[in-house]
Design goal:
The complex is a heterodimer of chains A (467) and B (341).
Chain A (H helix, E strand, L loop, with lengths): L5 H16 L3 H16 L4 H23 L4 H35 L17 H16 L9 H9 L1 H4 L7 H9 L6 H32 L7 H32 L17 H7 L2 H20 L7 H20 L3 H19 L11 H23 L3 H10 L6 H30 L4 H17 L13
Helix pairs in contact in A: 1-2, 2-6, 3-4, 3-5, 3-6, 4-5, 6-8, 9-10, 9-17, 9-18, 10-15, 10-17, 12-13, 13-14, 14-15
Chain B lengths: L1 H24 L19 H9 L3 E5 L1 H6 L2 H8 L3 E5 L5 H12 L8 E6 L14 H8 L6 H7 L6 H9 L1 H4 L1 H13 L1 H7 L3 H11 L7 H11 L11 H5 L4 H10 L3 E6 L13 H16 L3 E4 L19 H16 L5
Parallel strand pairs in B: 1-2, 1-3, 3-4, 4-5
Helix pairs in contact in B: 2-5, 4-17, 5-15
The chains are: A mainly alpha (467), B alpha/beta (341).
Amino acid sequence: MSFTSLTFWAFFAILFIAYWFMRERRWQNLLLLVASYVFYGWLTPWYAVLLGASTLGDFILARRMRQRTDKTKVYLGLSLILNLGVLAFFKYYSFFNSQVAEALTGAGLPVNWLFINVFLPAGLSFYTLKKLAYMFDVSRGLLEPSDDLVAFGLYVSFFPQIVAGPIDRYQKLMPQIQQKRVWQAEFFYSAWPLLVTGFFKKIVVADTIRSVVDRIFALNEPSMLLVIAGALGFTLEILADFSAYTDLARGIAQLLGFNTSENFNKPYLSLTPTEFWNRWHITLSIWLRDYIFFPVRRALLRRRQPLPAWLNQSIPPLVTMFISGIWHGAGLTFVVWGIYYGVLIAGCQLVGLRGDWQPAGRLKSFFAWLVMFAFIAFGWLIFRAPSLSWLLDVFQHSEWTHGQADLIVALTVLSMTLAYSLPIYIKHLLDEYVPGGFVHSFYYAALTIGIVIFTSSVTSDFIYFQF
Amino acid sequence: MREFKQYLLSLLILTGLISGFVFLRFADGYPFPVGLQFDPHIRQKYEEMLAEERPQILVFGDSVVETNVDTNLMASKLGKSVSAISEPGAGSALLYLVLKNNVATAESRPDLLILLFRDTVLTSPGFRVHGSFFEVMDEYAGTEDDFALQLAIRDQMSPLEKLAEAYFPPYWGRWDLRALLVSRVINLPVRALFDCTQECSEAAMGDVFGNQNFEPDQLNEAINSAENFLYTDENLDFEGQIDRSFLPEIVRICQENNIKLILVRTKILRFSIENPEPSALTNYVNDLSAYAQSHGVILIDFARDDRLKPTVFKDMHHLNQEGKTIFSEMLIEAIGSVPPP
């Protein structure tokens, strides 16, 4: 079910009424758990079965971990095999089977058995990270394992978050699941601006710009100018699409009395790659920082024979961003995109440009922003390219432009990108210079009219569903 | 609370302003007509073609007719005159309109109509009816073709959407408002720099994004994704769809005009060992076959024919030159065994 479908809102209306009629927290949780599984298994019921089995597995392993502290590593290992094994199988099977099939065909072996349907269950990457964080924290003694299967199941499957995050930690969500929730009008007043913004960014901005961006990246031999326009278009599309999902998820959670994490904080205004990752997909960045970056850095610093300082500084971001790349997808473009950010972060840190770096003076700040924005857009170009060979071909063989028609299209795409990014930019300005008041309300009303004008019976899926 | 009240007030003011603009600029009356409307002019391109060529056999369908069927080969082997109507991207709504307003009205009608289709196209009336597809439909439709609008457009809308279309000006005027945004804002730079109008800009888009410029894999993926519509539970339910589709009318028009109808299900590369045909589609084809038999229509199913190997396809749907010859031979063989009308 998509948040922008009528089916979802009919489902949510029924849930909302039933949920707030229930006074008991236990019944509310049970209802939310059932609703989350219905939501998740709506189109493919076995996704819900997989979710249930893996949740139960981790629930049991975490409790065993606490009962048998001498075997913590064994149970953690089992959980890692369970979670990463499932993730790796669904995420990378299709990527590898064609290559294995090619090798086997070459050796004269039958390969039909390889071609079974393996589709990545939506949101698997997201709820796997939630469960892994829980298991790591229990193994380190930072958390008491849950003894309430319904509450734990709800933490993992909470439907506003299950498909594309935010990846809220157990410490943030579980206390809210365990506390009594009574309807307050404040829930609605916090939710409506998020819902309006989310719908606008998805329906008006992301879906519109996507229609041309997809075409550019499907071209055989696009001109360089068209690729630049496409990269800038995608830079807007992915922010609008993903932050729209987060806004809607947060708004829906608010209506159910839950406060979930922000995932974006004006990421394209960053001046360094570290700052960008502190502002982009924040809950993923924090996860990577806590469970990959810090442990790798600690391991390097604890080495008996210490590595040179520059290596100690460079390896953690490289490893972290490499893992971030393969988490995003099976394909060389994602790996290269991850390494690209690893190199950028490591390089900036080596020359002293840390996350909080601020150049002196507005002009210098502007140029620093321009350079970083170019790096971000280039990163999205790698990320969105259909293949690495396509990208290399563009750089090696493409002309700047193929003629006037090409120029007109490139300019139109740039103009679209600029026009559709304006509402997002205006919001930044309002937040900065006009805090609160009628202007904000008028802004949301204008967005609502935009939604009405751009509503179409068919909307495409959110990009981050695929990760 | 206060912000929300301000929001509602702003929304009211903006709705009033936009509604006023829509009434002044685009509307003729109220409530508004639901869905798109056809203009009175009907293009007679194929009626004229049929009058000139006077074919005994007419092969009819989307671009697959052009790429898969060699009418000269058919004519020479069958000893009959053969013509073709190939409307790129046609869904069943357009096929119905061309049949009704050009073929059935032609002075010289064919004896045999071979209609090429894939999977559920004939009973999916909402397939390819928006945007540029609607413009082509409009070319072959007149104001009296309300039945086509009902099936292709209005029946596809939810009750809420119909209500909004009829009574809520910003929603009814959304296409015009969007067109205004494109022409006044988005196209401003190209108009200023190249003196390029909306039409010129659309022509440039058509030039740059022509099918021939796409990566074959990407094009196939895009086609596949757009065709998902044909394989929804709703569209795979033959019994549920048949009375809301154009197929009964296509059959009726052919019968009333003494045209023998042959439906030919073409092979496509959507399904394979790794992605086999869903059982619902197999059931659908069985139901279609029973329907055709009960209405005196012949159904030829080439969808699983091994003579068309993946190597003779140039994309998901279309055959290369070698495939065209193979397919035409298959068609000739199948038609040869059909009793004359």
